[in-house]
Amino acid sequence: MKRLHWYIIKSFIGPFFVTLVISLFVLLMQFLWVYLDELVGKGLDFSIILEFIVYTMAMLMTNALPLAMLLASIMTFGDLGENNELLAMKAAGISLYRIMKPLLVLSLFISIGSFYFYNQVIPVSYKKLIALMSSIRQLKPEIIVKPGVFSNDIDNYSIKVGRKSADGNMLYDIMIYDHTEDKGNITVIVADSGTMKITKDKKYMIINLFSGQNHSEMQPRDRQKLTYPARTDHFKKQAIYMGLQGMELERKDESIFRNQNRALRNDQITYFVDSMSRDLERQRIDHALMINYISTLTTNVFKLARKDTTPNPEIKLLAYMDLDSIIQKSSSAVRLEIINGAINSARNNVRAIKLSDDIITDYKRNLNRFEIEWHKKYTFAIACLVFFLIGAPLGAIIRKGGLGAPLVISVVLFIFYWVTTTTGEKFARESVGALWQGVWFATFVFLPAGLFLTYKAANDSVVFNLNAYADFFKGIYNFFKKKDKTKLEEPSESA
Question: Which residues, listed in sequence order, are joined to residue 242 by a DSSP beta bridge?
Fold first, then answer.
């Protein structure tokens, strides 16, 4: 039996790692396609790009691992079924449960390891990835000089070239406007040819110009004159050092993002949730106390009742007052003042209640994000086990190996799982029902399905045979048809 178990584990390990690499690659290409504009054209070193890819792959593991688990289990048991190995094992008296047992134990260890990975590795990767992406976003694009077009990528300079050599090293018909003095186009440099080079630290641009002139506009000695003298200097070779700002990658401090929900472990999330829950409760109390209960109406009524100008009377006095009689005894001017004050107070209360309610909603939504992240670490781990319970019996039922049918089935099931998970998380984030119900909704749907498929596959029940379903409904149809025919024949027999 041990040899059989090792054989099944070896049959699973290969497809699992292959499908995991394929899933990571596909998800990584999708991610890079979304953020391609922020990466291309900024002269990033290969080490920076590799670092970005490593952090991204760690973040994408939450989707790639369950998908690989599903696809590998379908492929493994599909191959065993297609090669009649499952049939031979069952003929030898080995049930499907015993065949699945070693992989079930392996899936359990993978689920535990995935929880540790999500709880320990992903928070660190998330902080590093967000800090790196924020640093890249602030990085200026690489300087590209196109022939016939002025380039303003360098601060205080505007550069135009007529043409470039085939290798792009030599520039011809160069024109440079110098705006370093911030006085307009008073300095122009023209050269027949030249070269451009950025220093290794990307702090300076060095332009070597050949055979050119410097044209500069001088300030007149007599300010009342409207004519400006000009000066032209000829040179055979001239070097210009232009300072570059924002061209080098300045890494941001990772600690800035340490309080985000995905950057925390579950024990840290628990601490944050407790603190945020107290803040939310405090905000609700402030919301209740903020409402102006003693409006202009009640204040003026107190004044009339007590014949004084006490600004803050006790609200208990209202229980012993006949407000209608007090208002009726007052003059029309006072009555109008009371009504207008009550309307203004009501409007102010409505605005204050709406503003406070929006603040409480934002507090609650932010708190839900942290609680959802706490639950997701467990749902991600259990998803690996659930997808094995779905994929293994499914492969035994369809009996198709390779990447064809298993890949199609896996993608369809995973898309349905992703849609279900996203919908449940949205409901949980917006406080539609209990939060744990929304986060665990996909697990509640897929776990019974996996157990049902395992039961059907173990008992060799027909699941995907359309003819069996057709015969079942045909039998129901014939039963009711025969019953109706019997009812029609009963009157004729009595006659």
Answer: 205
> Which amino acid, one-letter code, is at 468?
A
Q: How many helices (H) and strands (E) does the chain have?
A: 14, 5
Angle at 364 between CA 358 and CA 369, to 5 degrees: 130
Reference 59, options 134, 137, 130; nearest CA is 130
What is the share, in percent, of the chain residues with pLDDT greater than 90?
Answer: 9
Residue 143 CA: distances (Å) to CA of 46, 167, 265: 18, 16, 42
**Judging by DSSP bridges, how do beta strands 171-178 and 157-164 pair with one another?**
antiparallel
Instruction: Tell me phi and psi for residue 83, to 5 degrees.
Output: -90, 10
Q: In Å, how far from its chain's centre is CA 211? A: 55
pLDDT given at position 327: 66
What's the half-sphere exposure (Cβ side, CA atoms, 13 Å) at 356? Answer: 19
Q: Name, in order, each residue with C-beta under 8 angstroms of 477's C-beta and a sequence gap of 6 or more.
A: none
pLDDT tens-digit map of 7-17: 888 888 988 99
Residue 330 CA: distances (Å) to CA of 92, 333, 338: 101, 8, 10
Return d(Cα 382, Cα 359) in angstroms, integer.
35
CA 344, CA 223: separation in Å to the nearest integer? 64
Flag the least confident range among 216-225, 280-289, 380-389.
216-225
Instruction: Answer for the pair 162, 145: CB distance below 8 angstroms, yes or no.
Output: no
Q: Which residue's entry shows tokens 């979304």?
A: 34
From the CB of residue 407, how many other CB atoms can be counted at a distance below 10 Å?
15
Residue 312 DSSP class: S
**CA 8 → CA 1, 99, 355, distances in Å?**
11, 8, 62
Q: Is the pTM of this model over 0.90?
A: no
Maximum C-alpha span of the chain: 134
Amino acid at 6: W
One-letter amino acid identity for 115?
A: F
Given a contact cutoff of 8 angstroms between Cβ atoms, the answer to whether 379 and 118 are in contact is: no
CB atoms within 10 A of CB 14: 12
Average pLDDT score over residue span 198-222: 77
Residue 236 main-chain phi, psi, to 5 deg: -95, -35
Amino acid 471: pLDDT: 63
Residue type, 36: L
Count of beta carbons in the 10 Å neighbourhood of residue 273: 18
- Residue 129 in contact with residue 55, Cβ under 8 Å? yes
Which pLDDT score is estimated for 462?
A: 57
Sheet with 204-217, edge to edge strand ranges: 157-164, 171-178, 187-198, 204-217, 230-243
Lowest mean pLDDT among 19-23, 52-56, 162-166, 385-389: 162-166
- pLDDT, averaged across the chain: 78
Residue 295 confidence (pLDDT)? 45
